[in-house]
Design brief:
By secondary structure, this protein is of the alpha+beta class. The chain is built from 19 helices and 14 strands. The chain binds flavin-adenine dinucleotide and iron/sulfur cluster.
Length: 539
């Protein structure tokens, strides 16, 4: 009998080892190149697992030979590697999965309780603190959790077997400890038109052919976080679909190196600094985010990796559940906020004014804003409820509020950080000048702050503030905060839908003594039902 998770992990690793050494070489399968014989456990294992894949990636008009070694791509790989290393170091990033019976990385875990959702948020804040950037794995985690309930409910209505296929996929990725990317956003063309109404049908990803082995999809996915750093990518629809859009109602998993996939790497502000000598001008030399445009040209998905095919009426359910998880996943930004608040406080200290009242007040305001984001996100998770499939879903109203705060507060926190940092955050000379025999000593003389502070340290922290508010990681801290998981208006629509104005009017009328104008229904439903529920029931 196996006593512990680690015993079970050892046994599974042994079976996988035997499979890869003795059986797999004899099989003619179309498995991804991630099938290396070494089990991925640490960040370093993960980095090795990405090597020698046949990905087609364009960057600066050239094909990238080995993304792992590309100085502009590597920081984003390091950020994902930290999600593995955290799981090795701390319990926070692991969970016990009842699907495989294994201890798995939390990013691959299907939430079995509200506490699991809360722990996702805690892990996200910790990783934000450790990396100061987007660590790229939450889209996949939220896609897995939303597909658990959606595939279950499609099967319930259509007697399909998507849920079973999906569970097999989850077992595989949990056992092999893989990175999953979530591809929802299509290029969308004319935003006033649906998929079937576009001049070019490829502007939304769709099924172009099928046979007895599977389906073939074409189109593109835009702004794909960590796609090149993923082992598998789950394709999902991005808008509510009608019967005319049946071909676009498709969900499936593909290896990141599937035949027919082309990536065009997204530029980030100041990205080429990572190709220069030195580490100061990067601001955060080790970690960065990643987005790319992903183009799909008749990409094959075998039937066992297809989780929706034509059930257009379930597209909105999947999108709403995914965005519900994902909008509270944006507590990741509070980890980045912690770093930026720390950087602002450090600059104030280096400048000799750590105890000035307006500086302390600004740091207090930054903290207040940051914790307001966290409060809504973690409360959304605490209010999580069980779905029919058994997975837990966090509260939708509070998830919307969390993400809506994220579209604003990091901008204000950044403004205050730049206020405290002073103008040098944008006028600082380069590291090359700092190392120059003539310019260097001049900089050391004139960029001095409080007595005893190393000028290089002052430069480093100013560059970090630049990195997070104007440079590479401003992509993750600011614009991703605005648009990732949906632009602000998308949250306002959801808040409006759920704000239960009739119920609130009745509360007011009752206290005002109005008895002949009570609206129906007077009972709490939707959001308030979840707020006031006392039992862990399926809602
Ligand atoms: C850094 C970053 C990382 C991301 N990572 C991922 C990822 O990993 N996976 C993924 O699937 N997606 C990802 N996204 C995509 C993200 O979900 C989209 O950016 C978001 O949904 C907005 O879509 P858009 O960028 O096409 O903007 P647009 O749709 O062009 O929106 C621009 C503006 O137009 C408004 N608008 C658009 N359409 C309409 C309409 N029909 N009616 C009224 N107003 C409209 C919007 O409200 C917004 O104000 C990422 C985005 C960013 C910026
Ligand atoms: S933006 Fe945040 S929630 Fe989204 S993948 Fe990056 S770290 Fe995770």
């Amino acid at each position: 009998m196996l006593e512990s998770d680690s015993d079970r992990n050892l046994l599974v690793n042994f079976y996988l080892y035997c499979f890869r050494i003795f059986i797999q070489p004899r099989m003619n399968t179309n498995m991804a190149n991630v099938e290396k014989f070494k089990i991925i456990r640490t960040g370093e294992d993960y980095i090795q697992s990405l090597r020698e894949r046949d990905l087609k990636i364009y960057l600066f008009g050239e094909l990238v030979k080995e993304p792992v070694d590309h100085p502009m791509i590597r920081p984003s790989i390091n950020a994902v590697a930290e999600t593995y290393d955290l799981a090795v170091r701390e319990e926070l990033a692991s969970a016990h999965s009842s699907i495989t019976g294994l201890k798995v990385n939390r990013f691959l875990h299907i939430a079995e309780s509200a506490q699991d959702l809360v722990l996702q948020n805690k892990m996200q804040r910790k990783l934000g603190q450790n990396t100061g950037t987007c660590f790229q794995r939450c889209v996949g985690m939220d896609a897995l959790n939303s597909l658990h309930s959606t595939t279950f409910e499609i099967d319930e209505k259509h007697k399909t077997n998507y849920h079973k296929r999906f569970l097999e996929f989850v077992k595989m990725v949990q056992k092999e400890n893989l990175v999953i990317g979530g591809a929802m956003t299509d290029p969308k063309g004319d935003r006033s038109k649906g998929p079937a109404e576009q001049d070019d049908p490829d502007l939304f990803t769709r099924v172009v052919a099928k046979d007895d082995k599977g389906i073939y999809v074409s189109g593109a996915k835009a702004h794909q976080t960590g796609c090149i750093n993923s082992h598998w990518i789950i394709l999902m629809p991005t808008v509510r679909l009608t019967e005319n859009d049946k071909d676009w109602a498709v969900v499936g998993a593909i290896p990141a190196d599937a035949k027919g996939v082309t990536y065009i790497y997204g530029r980030q502000s100041c990205d080429t600094r990572s190709m220069e000598e030195g580490t100061i001008d990067d601001g955060n030399a080790k970690y960065g985010g990643q987005e790319a445009l992903m183009i799909l040209d008749k990409v094959f998905i075998p039937w066992d990796k297809v989780f929706m095919h034509g059930e257009y009426e379930f597209a909105s359910m999947l999108i709403e559940r995914f965005t519900c998880y994902h909008r509270r996943s944006y507590v990741c930004k509070t980890g980045l906020g912690d770093v930026l608040i720390g950087a602002a406080a450090t600059v104030a200290d280096y400048n000799g004014i750590p105890n000035v009242s307006h500086i302390k007040d600004k740091l207090t305001e930054m903290t207040h804003l940051n914790e307001t984001i966290f409060a809504a996100g973690i409360a959304s998770s605490y209010l999580g409820h069980k779905m029919k499939s058994g997975v837990y879903l966090n509260d939708d109203m509070l998830a919307q509020v969390c993400k809506h705060n994220v579209t604003r507060f990091p901008y204000e926190i950044s403004r205050l950080a730049q206020d405290i940092a002073g103008g040098l955050v944008v006028t600082l000379p380069s590291e090359k000048d700092f190392r120059h025999p003539v310019a260097g000593p001049l900089l050391k003389k004139y960029l001095v702050g409080r007595k005893g502070v190393d000028v290089e340290n002052r430069m480093r922290v100013l560059r970090l503030i630049e990195n997070m508010t104007l440079g590479r990681n401003a992509v993750g801290y600011l614009t991703e905060s605005m648009h990732g998981a949906g632009s602000p208006q998308a949250q306002r629509i959801q808040i409006q839908r759920q704000m239960q104005i009739g119920y609130k009017k009745n509360l007011a009328k009752k206290l005002a003594g109005i008895t002949n104008d009570i609206e129906k229904p007077n009972e709490p439903s939707g959001y308030f039902n979840r707020v006031f529920k006392t039992k862990d029931s399926v809602l």
